[in-house]
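Reviewers of the previous submission asked for a worked example of the structure-prediction workflow described in the proposal, so we include one complete record here. The input consisted solely of the amino acid sequence. No template or homolog information was supplied to the procedure at any stage.
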Amino acid sequence: MKILVAITGASGSIYGLRLLEELLRIGHPVTLVASESGLEVCRYETGVELDKADTLKLHWNLPDANLTIRSVTDLWAAEASGSAAPDVMVIAPCSMGTVGRIAAGISGNLIERAADVMLKEHRPLVLLPRETPFSTIHLENLLKLSRCGVRIIPAMPAFYQKPATLDDMVNFVVGKLLDQLGVEHTLFKRWGDL
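From that input alone, the workflow returned the following structure tokens.
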């Protein structure tokens, strides 16, 4: 399964990094693209330089795997075409600006264009919106995308898991993303297994 992971400028880049780590550990080929704001927020929140593969692998201890990094300005990338679309795209975290541009059909960068491709090709697009509180405009944009088949997975950890660490809370949310991709994982215990 070819997976495109996008990280935008919303707080919570840890979700995208943890998703990337898990997908690569499992052995999926992943293409990563980050918005300019996503690069800055990730650097600020985690110290990780998303646009440098070697630094990213070392800092985040990513396994040697099939990781491709694309520039957000690269509209010539394969992911910008319906004839070479990834099997699934996840935007984690997804800013409300990105949500609004996707909902409006604006394709000004690779993240927006790839999302547009996923919609037009009826392929899975999964968003992890990171904003609180949501405004009415945010909710209307998310509803519009949901009606188009986009899967909306807000960053809402469960406390029935009795999380002991921040990692436990991140793993729950990333596990819910993986569930939407149909990827088996052991990031959290299921309700009946507690």
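The beta strands are 3-7, 30-34, 67-71, 88-94, 125-129, 151-152. We consider this example representative of the routine output the project will generate in years two and three.
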